[in-house]
Amino acid sequence: MARDPKPRPRLTARTADRHVLYQRSVQAAETDAACYARWFKKYTGRDLRVLREDFCGTALLACHHVKRHRDNRAIGVDLHGPTLAWGRIHNVRPLLDAEQQRRLLLLQQNVLEVRSPKADAILALNFSYSVFKTRRELGAYIVNCHRSLKPGGMLFLDAWGGPDVLKQQTDRTRHKGFTYLWEQRRYDPISHEIVCAIHFEFPDGTKFRDAFVYDWRLWTLAELRELFEAAGFEDVHVLWEGTDKKTGTGNGVFRRKERGDMDEAWISIVVGRKRG
Ligand SMILES: C[S@@+](CC[C@H](N)C(=O)[O-])C[C@H]1O[C@@H](n2cnc3c(N)ncnc32)[C@H](O)[C@@H]1O
């Protein structure tokens, strides 16, 4: 068998790029783009054409949405200029040709204030809205989403919880060339504020500590549903992830449920629809 002339250099904390590692360990952007397009079609009977990815970071999901169809457009919103700039270099340019790039709009703005073109669907994933620590702020964000959607448009926010989430602990997941660590560092039962961090470890023994640190409020599904309804969303409900019988962890299959399970840790998606 022919040898790879340029073997990939081994990953080490000395040279690792935290965005590359994040995308490889946390995101499944191509699968998610396909999944939300399928759900949107199922809910509305329409094709998902204009997607807004809030808290888009490196805009990987927005890029994949644009790539899926020649009529697809995406709007990515993030406050942090350097992260958006990284996304332009490492995701937008390699993944999209010039025509596709014209169908992607990246806005360096606060999602609380952004005035974007109207979208068919807005996604806020990986719990990023948890930066809002008061009902007033999170409520204002959800109202802004409602205003930014076309009639019949949909908002999807993911959420997490369960007794395991409240424990001080670090979970480790091995990936090719590195280990991903998710640390639940501090949780305050009074305010529901939670501090979590992502670290990476490498086979040469080096560590990238605090690659990302999150200072969040842990919102409950009940609070999220109430805020969706207060903002004017209809048919507000939860998609609950099923459990893999062998591993006891999430199986990636989300179904509409009125009652959740008493799982140690769970992920779900809150869905709301703007009147059509
Ligand atoms: C956890 S990352 C999310 C990355 C990606 N969307 C994902 O699903 O993995 C959170 C992002 O939210 C951005 N962010 C935090 N507060 C924001 C705000 N008020 N408005 C816009 N972006 C914000 C940060 O700059 C960061 O890039």
Present the secondary structure layout.
Blueprint: H1 18-25, H2 29-44, E1 50-54, H3 60-68, E2 73-78, H4 81-95, H5 98-101, E3 104-108, E4 119-124, H6 135-148, E5 149-161, E6 169-175, E7 178-188, E8 193-201, E9 207-217, H7 221-230, E10 234-243, E11 250-257, E12 266-273
Parallel strand pairs: 1-2, 1-4, 2-3, 4-5
Antiparallel strand pairs: 5-12, 6-7, 7-8, 8-9, 10-11, 10-12
Helix pairs in contact: 2-3, 3-4
The structure holds S-adenosylmethionine.
Residues 26-27, 55-57, 77-80, 83, 110-112, 125-126, 128, 131 line the site of S-adenosylmethionine.
Structural commentary:
- The chain has seven helices and twelve strands.
- With 276 residues, it is α/β, with parallel strands linked by helices.
- It folds into two domains: 25-159 and 219-273, Vaccinia Virus protein VP39 (Rossmann fold, 3-Layer(aba) Sandwich), CATH 3.40.50.150; 163-216, N-terminal domain of TfIIb (Single Sheet).
- The strands form two sheets. An eight-stranded mixed sheet has the order 3-2-1-4-5-12-10-11. Strands 6-7-8-9 form a four-stranded antiparallel sheet, with helices on one face.
- Strand 8 (193-201) and strand 9 (207-217) form a beta hairpin.
Number of DSSP E strands = 12
Overall pLDDT metric: 96
Strand line-up in the sheet with most strands: 3-2-1-4-5-12-10-11
**Ligand roster:** S-adenosylmethionine
CATH-defined architecture of the largest domain: 3-Layer(aba) Sandwich
Range of strand content? 35-45%
Roughly how much helix do the residues carry, as a percent range?
Answer: 25-40%
Structural class estimated from helices and strands: alpha/beta
What sequence of helices (H) and strands (E) makes up the elements?
A: HHEHEHHEEHEEEEEHEEE
Q: Spans of 5+ residues with little confidence (pLDDT < 50)?
A: none
Largest sheet at a glance? 8 strands, mixed
Cα-atom radius of gyration? 19 Å
Helix count, per DSSP? 7
